[in-house]
TrEMBL record:
EC class of the enzyme, as a word: transferase
Organism of origin: Crepidotus variabilis
All copies of domain Protein kinase, residue ranges: 11-258
Protein name (Swiss-Prot/TrEMBL): non-specific serine/threonine protein kinase
GO biological process assignments: tRNA processing; tRNA threonylcarbamoyladenosine metabolic process
EC number(s) given by UniProt: 2.7.11.1
Transmembrane segments: none
Reactions listed under catalytic activity: L-threonyl-[protein] + ATP = O-phospho-L-threonyl-[protein] + ADP + H(+); L-seryl-[protein] + ATP = O-phospho-L-seryl-[protein] + ADP + H(+)
Length: 258
């Protein structure tokens, strides 16, 4: 399925930034009806998959784009810091959201030997440090825990919680905002609605494993995230904590079995 002409024009005026695992190309536009005030917009485009039957591909694309938009809208209604939505063209596989000026948390937190060899990203990380944002690493972990808790209280499961899917806003873009708005959760392509404690525990476990594989000092860092998360959930934290322990145990058993 080809996107309608209006969507094609948007893509033609955009610049390709990256292409993710879900085969979604990411582009940035600065002009047109989506950004009449000169505000940059991020376009996420799920293009046609040749290996799938056309009807199935159309149905899946429409469902996933619409699902991501619904998750973002619910997060926004519940005060979760996520990008605002500028346009949705689900049949065309196109989602337009606000561009977040900042840097992914992954490149601001100490990393292990498997750090991505990307000079552009490395230079950006060097140019913007936590000191320039005016917060400490503990404060950053606290902000992350709070945002995840607000998301789970809204019964939204992210599905791919990693430090690559969190952005710390640039100081210039937060001049008139509170510090609690510094961290923005992004990429809800695998998100879904669920009130199940199991799903929330698995979401946290995914983030814990991401910390373990990317950041060498992950244990105290993730503990800080959980502390802030628990404070937000209050009485609802106990069942999530118990289930998280169960999920960890299952994860260790799978690792031992191979």
């Amino acid at each position: 399925m080809n996107p309608p002409l209006s969507s094609l024009k948007l893509l033609e005026s955009a610049t390709l930034i990256s292409q993710g695992a879900e085969a979604a190309s990411i582009s940035k536009v600065y002009r047109g009806s989506l950004s009449s005030e000169g505000v940059p917009v991020l376009l996420k485009y799920r293009f046609q998959k040749q290996y799938r039957h056309p009807k199935l591909d159309t149905s899946l694309t429409k469902s996933r784009v619409a699902g991501e938009a619904r998750a973002l809208l619910k997060c926004l209604r519940h005060g979760v810091n996520v990008p605002g939505i500028r346009m949705v063209d689900a049949p065309a596989g196109l989602l337009g959201i606000d561009w977040i000026d900042g840097i992914t948390v992954k490149y601001l937190v100490p990393q292990g030997l498997d750090k991505q060899a990307d000079e552009t990203i490395d230079q950006l990380a060097e140019a913007k440090t936590l000191d320039q944002f005016g917060i400490t690493i503990d404060a950053l972990m606290n902000l992350i825990g709070v945002e995840i808790a607000k998301m789970h209280l809204a019964d939204i499961i992210h599905g791919d919680l990693t430090t690559s899917n969190m952005i710390l806003r640039s100081p210039q873009s937060t001049a008139d905002k509170k510090n609690t708005e510094l961290v923005v959760l992004i990429d809800f392509g695998l998100s879904y609605h669920s009130s199940l404690v199991e799903d929330k525990a698995v979401d946290l476990f995914v983030l814990e494993r991401a910390f373990a594989s990317t950041h060498p000092d992950f244990e105290p860092l993730f503990a800080s995230v959980l502390a802030a998360y628990a404070k937000m959930l209050k009485k609802d934290w106990a069942p999530v904590q118990r289930r998280l322990d169960d999920v960890r145990l299952r994860g260790r058993k799978r690792s031992m079995v191979g």
